[in-house]
Amino acid sequence: MDPKSLRYASTHEWARLEGDICTIGITPFAVEQLTDVIYIELPDVGDHVFAGDSFGEIESVKAVSDLFSPVNGEVIEVNDKLVDDPSRITADPLGKGWLIKVKTEPGTTLDHLLTWEQYEKQIASQGH
Amino acid sequence: MSYIPNTPNDQQAMLATIGVRSLTELFDVIPPAIRLERPLALPPALTEIELTRLAQQLAGRNRSTADTVCFLGGGSYDHFVPAVVDAVAGRSEFYTAYTPYQAEASQGSLQAFFEFQTLIAQLTGMDVANASLYEGGSAVAEAVLMASGLEPRRHHVLLADSVHPDYRQTLATYTANLDLHVQTLPTPAGFLDPADLKHALRDDTLCVVVQHPNFFGCLEEVEALAAISHACGALFIVSYDPISLGLLKRPGDYGADIAVAEGQALGIPLTYGGPYLGLLACRGEFVRRMPGRLVGQTVDRNGRRCWVLTLQTREQHIRREKATSNICTNQGLMALRAAVYLAALGPQGLRETAEACARKAHYTADQLTRLPGVSLQFDRPFFKEFTVRLPVGALERGLLDRLRDDGFHAGLPLGRWYSWLADCMSLAVTEKRTRAEIDALASALGRALTAK
Amino acid sequence: MSQPQATELLFELSRPGRRAHLVPACDVPDRPLSELLPAGALAEKPPPLPEVAEIDLIRHFVNLSTRNMAVDTNFYPLGSCTMKYNPKRHERIAALSGLADVHPLQADESCQGLLAILFELQTMLAEIAGLPAVSLQPAAGAQGELTSLLVAHAYFRHRGEHQRSRVLIPDSAHGTNPASAALAGFEAVSIKSNLRGLVDLDDLRAKLDERTAVFMITNPNTLGLFDDQIGTITELVHQHGGLVYLDGANMNAILGITRPGDFGADMMHYNVHKTFTGPHGAGGPGAGPIAVRDTLAPFLPTPIVARQGERYYLDFDQPLSIGRVRSFFGNVGILIRGWCYIRTLGADGLRRVSENAVLNANYLLARLKGAYEVPYGERCMHEFVASARVLRRERKVSAMDIAKRLLDFGFHAPTVYFPLVVPEALMIEPTETESKETLDAFADTLLRVRNEEAAVLQTAPHTLDISRPDEVKAAKEPILRWKP
To answer: Does the pLDDT value for residue A128 go beyond 50?
Structure first.
């Protein structure tokens, strides 16, 4: 997946909109910060998610982070393989490591999110 | 005595290194307006000899179980504590260590707690146990909160009136400001009637909480209660007596989802109510919702088996306001005592202890109910504790004071918690009681009841 | 001497038929169990506990004890935990039969000595706090926090101030603060620290409003700094109708020097096992008494020890009480030790405790600050927080690596990665019971370790029974018990 084709939240989620289906994951930077991911909690299919609200959690040994949805919508698919083996997210966070797919409301765009360049600038300024 | 090794010379050298002139200067940051400009009004300092003398004097004003035969129960029991328990818990390598955050320097405690977790799991027939909670009352509250974490959409809690009154009050206090509605089910016959539970269960019932054997000493119909609870999708939480499991079916065998207990009976002295030991065990799939510390097995870099604190993201120091509980410090030293106790008794010792309690309790009940006006309050099977009804007004007229003068903590008057049991008391009989003590109690009670 | 077999588990040592305890032959008439208890309630066999002989049992646990560092064997500068020396006389006194063998439901008349001790402890803790009403019930500091917040909740409800739904908590606070707030039914709101590591007054002002129930402050805070803005802070909170809660985890720094009640706190908890030397027990038991202002006293848990003439009694008669947070009176065994400590030290002794705790911490700070970054302050109270941030950046050596390496030299590690506001934190609390020589040896080691090769540090410890455990494996595939 070309990172430049995705949009980003400042809380380190990425989003890709195809039609009205939005795929959501977390960025390689976030995965690296967490080091060893040991647990991911995701919503059920049919649950509603809301832009800016937490839809799940991701844990390493000594940290836990909320996962924030960049959009409103209904969960239509969950990456179960990830729940079974959270370490899969490490290999390909922007591809096979996606978290959930959401059916968005009509008229949803990702214009409020950061571009790849803007996001890169943000993580550079976090003094990594 | 203040246990400070540094001499005035040391202090001067240290102050010089710091670059200040006096100890007082170190506190300059505290605004003068809020400094205490007088000595604290405390009693004068005592030497060890004086302190010991004072403590012995005050201890001498208490009627301990060493000089008064104890038939008191109600959640705290005069069981025997084998010397090995004190010997191990008295190792200051255990009692002057703290929470084993540095696993490499704490393998002793970590392994002991891993063994404790295993012992409690084996004792209860549950999949996993945590490394302890404070005591039996807050353990009930923690179990209900844990259930709520598992089933956040359910808000209705059913609680038997036969659960220890302190535990019920603790649960009420813990849940006072949360979105949980606790409904207490009456137990007029000394146990929760499964039919009553069936009527009370609702679609949104989160859990059912019972104690078995219960506060009156009676057995509950736990198998039926568990099945009825599960049929409604409610979790079944039981508070058990660990000694009773030498004889009775284990919570895991009759379908408990979360099993909690007061662990005091497992080698912990009475000490007027604490420190005791909260036990919590549950089904394996609930582990991420468990409160408190968990020790897990892993390997070191050389592949050697070792132990660490694990699944810490559940806990307050990481998850803060979303933690499964606010508990931090638990009852480590008491968990160690329980581990040594259970290992010292072993399966046979636990069975014999439980049998001795049951036989002696039944013998006591037989002897007491031969006295005119004394009867069993409930027609229910009991284990080591039972409730008797006494002649009307006998307790009010100072029966227990008289029996104490005769050398007995004879029983626990129940009117304080249950107005309908104002003429009843419960008695607990442990393996420590002898036939001679029991016979003497019966005659003393007989005398006290006939004296006017 | 290390004993390799110590790591076998009791269950692995078990052999059928071995025992370490016998029960006397039953002296009451032998009736079949089936007459006493219904068959359906009985287990077929007793629980599968290990079967060991007494020598196996003792050797097992005594060997395990040697695989611990403890205050009695090693310097243990675990920040925030106040790992001071535990006086042995307290252990002997707490074990006196007249104290240890007293049942919690005995009549008041039969335990006047114990009630006298507890009453006096209530009085002494009130004096040290500068707050008049004390409950000894909470089992540990975290339960003391919860109890106080429940008291605050009941107080506001009683006053009809139902809108007070928020508890404000500095970002440097212990995790128990927000966890207790949530459990007490409040929303936890975080307040920033300023550049000095103290409460950011602007952020506090911005978040104080009619929804504020309680502001929780640890003072000295977890950075070991006394917040000299405390007067302003308590005034601000009170102006908005809120209560100030003092997390007393760090009372060891201010005993007899300043009192929470005098600097505006309305309620507080003590950690008796820290400040007043209960045995830490590898994680408890603690005791977490609370002290509150008069106006909050009616809401305290029951019972409280009261006195009428010469007679002491448990007072349950408090209609506005929140109820109770545990069964029975409290962690009395730990409270007795706290009473012993205060009676042994007296006013002057307690003050010297704090003076020397602060002296020892500042001495270590002075010796280390050239080599380790200490982000907040030239001075500290009873503890300070150093950072390994530079080491991490320049040499990929973390606070954890330093901590582990210290173990090789016989020192327990400081608290690491807390408070969260300092990256690569090393939180050091020496306590007053350590000598200058011990502090020097520790400082020398930290200075030496800093210059060691990165590889040596990253793989430490090298001399303990085990090397670093695989924590990822432990969390990913949890093994929480031995299985047959």
So the answer is: no
Question: Taking an 8 Å Cβ-Cβ cutoff, which residues of chain A contact chain C?
Answer: 36, 38-39, 61-62, 86-87
Contact list in C for residue A86 (CB cut-off 8 A) is 476
pLDDT tens per residue, range B102-150 = 999 999 999 999 999 999 999 999 999 999 999 999 999 999 999 999 9
Q: Can you say whether residue B132 is alpha, beta or left, with left for phi > 0 and alpha for psi between -120 and 50 degrees?
A: left
C-alpha distance from A111 to closest chain B C-alpha (Å): 32
Task: Using CA coordinates, name the residue in chain A closest to C392.
Answer: A128
Q: Which of B14, B325, B333 sits opposite C284 (nearest CB)?
A: B333
Query: Do residues B386 and B217 lie in contact, with contact meaning Cβ atoms separated by under 8 Å?
Result: yes
What residue ranges in C194-281 does DSSP mark as E strands? Answer: 212-218, 243-248, 267-270
How many helices and strands in chain C, by DSSP H and E?
17, 12
With a cut of 0.85, is the ipTM above it? yes
**Chain A residue with Cα closest to B308:** A61
Mean pLDDT within B436-444: 98
> Are residues B147 and B279 both part of a single domain?
yes
Q: Could you read off the pLDDT of B35-88 as tens digits, one per residue?
A: 999 999 999 999 999 999 999 999 999 999 999 999 999 999 999 999 999 999
Dihedral sign, Cα of residue C335, residue C337, residue C339, residue C345: negative
Query: Cα separations (Å) of A89 from A38, B132, C182?
Result: 10, 34, 32
Q: Do A62 and B288 touch (CB under 8 A)?
A: no
Question: Looking at the predicted structure, is the pLDDT value of residue A127 above 80?
Answer: no
Of the three residues B313, B341, B369, the one that is the final residue of a domain is B341
Q: What is the CATH number of the domain that holds A92?
A: 2.40.50.100
* C-alpha A43 chain-centroid distance: 13
Based on the domain organization, do C239 and C132 belong to the same domain? yes
* Edge-to-edge strand list for the sheet holding C212-218: C133-135, C290-292, C267-270, C243-248, C212-218, C166-170, C187-191
In a domain, C71, yes or no: no
Asked whether the predicted pLDDT for residue B166 surpasses 60, the reply is yes
A26-63: pLDDT as tens digits:
999 888 888 788 899 999 999 999 999 999 999 988 88
Q: Does residue C73 belong to any structural domain of this protein?
A: no
Q: How many CB pairs under 8 A join A and C?
A: 13
Considering the domain architecture, whether residues C326 and C179 belong to the same structural domain is answered as yes
Q: Best of C99, C101, C251, C360 to disrupt the B interface by mutation (most B CBs within 10 Å)?
A: C101
Q: Is the per-residue pLDDT at C243 higher than 70?
A: yes
Pairwise CA distance, residues C159 & C181, whole Å? 20
**Which pLDDT score is estimated for B32?**
96
Q: Does C363 touch chain A (CB under 8 A)?
A: no
pLDDT band at C91 (very low <50, low <70, confident <90, very high): very high
Shared-domain flag, residues C103 and C243: yes
**Residues in chain C closer than 8 A to B329 (CB atoms):** 140-142, 271, 273, 283-286
Domain count, chain C: 3
User: Would C213 be classed as within a structural domain?
Assistant: yes
Please state, in angstroms and rounded to a whole number, the distance separating the CA atoms of residues B188 and B197: 13
Q: Which residues contact B58 (CB under 8 A, 6 or more apart)?
A: C98, C99, C113, C114, C116, C117
Residue at A89 is within a domain: yes
Given B317, B341, B365, the domain boundary residue is B341
User: Which of C328, C363, C380, C457 is the mutation pick for testing B, counting most B CBs within 10 A?
Assistant: C328
In this complex, do A38 and C417 lie within 8 Å of one another by their Cβ atoms? no
For residue C484, is it within any domain? no
Domain range for residue A60?
11-105
What's the number of domains chain A is made of? 1
Residue B59 within any structural domain of the chain: no
- Whether residue C470 lies within 8 A of chain A, CB to CB, comes out as no
Task: Pick from A33, A36, A85 the residue to mutate for testing the C interface (most C CBs within 10 Å).
Answer: A36
Place of tokens 């009736």: C31
Name the minimum distance, in Å, from the CA of C239 to any CA of chain B: 19
